[in-house]
Amino acid sequence: MGTGPEIYEQTNKSVTHFVMGASTGGTVSGVGRYLKEQDKSIQIVLVDPIGSVLAGYKETGAIVEGDSKKYFTEGVGKNNIPGALDCQYIDSTVRYTDN
Questions:
Q1: Beta strand 17-21 with 92-96: parallel, antiparallel or unpaired?
Q2: CA-to-CA distance for 72 and 5, rounded, in angstroms?
Q3: Total number of domains constituting the chain
Q4: Does the model's pTM come out above 0.90?
Q5: What tens-digit pLDDT sequence spans the chain (99 residues)?
Q6: SS3 (DSSP) at 34
Q7: How many CB atoms within 10 Å of residue 91?
Q8: Residue 26 sits in which domain range?
Q9: d(Cα 62, Cα 53) in Å, to the nearest integer?
Q10: What is the CATH number of the domain that holds 14?
């Protein structure tokens, strides 16, 4: 069983939001795709440290000049757009400061 099906089953099919950070984008994209296949109203939220380019890319479709800066959270964020990230499954973004 993958992460998407596990979340859906363990919430008794009542999940309304899925919130996570991303690095390669594979998990947020895969879980998002699966959950939206089950219920299109489920909201997928990408949480991204200020300094990473992922949230800006989702919001604008391009790497925003000046977005790529130092951030401290390990395992999330990027200074480029990974091939596994599929923004069509992400509904919104939240940026946070970690310094």
A1: unpaired
A2: 31
A3: 1
A4: yes
A5: 799 999 999 999 999 999 999 999 999 999 999 999 999 999 999 999 999 999 999 999 998 776 778 888 889 999 999 999 999 999 999 999 987
A6: helix
A7: 17
A8: 3-96
A9: 9
A10: 3.40.50.1100
